[in-house]
Write a structure and sequence with these properties.
6 strands, alpha+beta, globular, 4 helices, 6-stranded mixed β-sheet
Length: 126
């Protein structure tokens, strides 16, 4: 049985996920400390594992990502736990890298926080 997702939660989660792909928010350490949970872990597209502090410490760089996020889908796993999935297309040095993405968000007193993220590379069929 799928739990109902409110329009306000859908809008909030879409906006939060896109903040991670916008330079002005992704490299705002104060904002990301609010968004990324203290126990956050990521399995990156590269195969590396990242903890919160590593993600917060990334130096500002250009992000050339496709927005809105392609194939975005949101489902509630529990009333206060959501999974967001989408595909990313990011360009580095003229080369486009694609990944299937999955994020787990939990709702607390201060709103939604990112707990887990995984990127799995794939080759886009032309």
């Amino acid at each position: 049985m799928q739990l109902p997702l409110s329009d306000s939660d859908r809008t909030a989660l879409m906006a939060l996920e896109e903040e991670l792909w916008r330079e002005e928010t992704r490299f705002d350490r104060t904002r990301m400390m609010e968004v990324i949970a203290p126990d956050f872990v990521e399995f990156g597209r590269s195969g590396r594992t990242y903890k919160r502090e590593e993600c917060l410490s990334i130096e500002k760089q250009r992000i050339d990502a496709v927005l809105p996020l392609p194939n975005l889908s949101i489902r509630l796993i529990h009333p206060d736990v959501a999974q967001v999935t989408y595909d990313s297309a990011v360009t580095y040095s003229g080369v486009v890298f694609h990944a299937h993405r999955s994020s787990i968000w939990t709702r607390g007193e201060s709103g939604w926080q990112l707990r887990f993220h995984q990127g799995t590379p794939f080759e886009k069929k032309t």
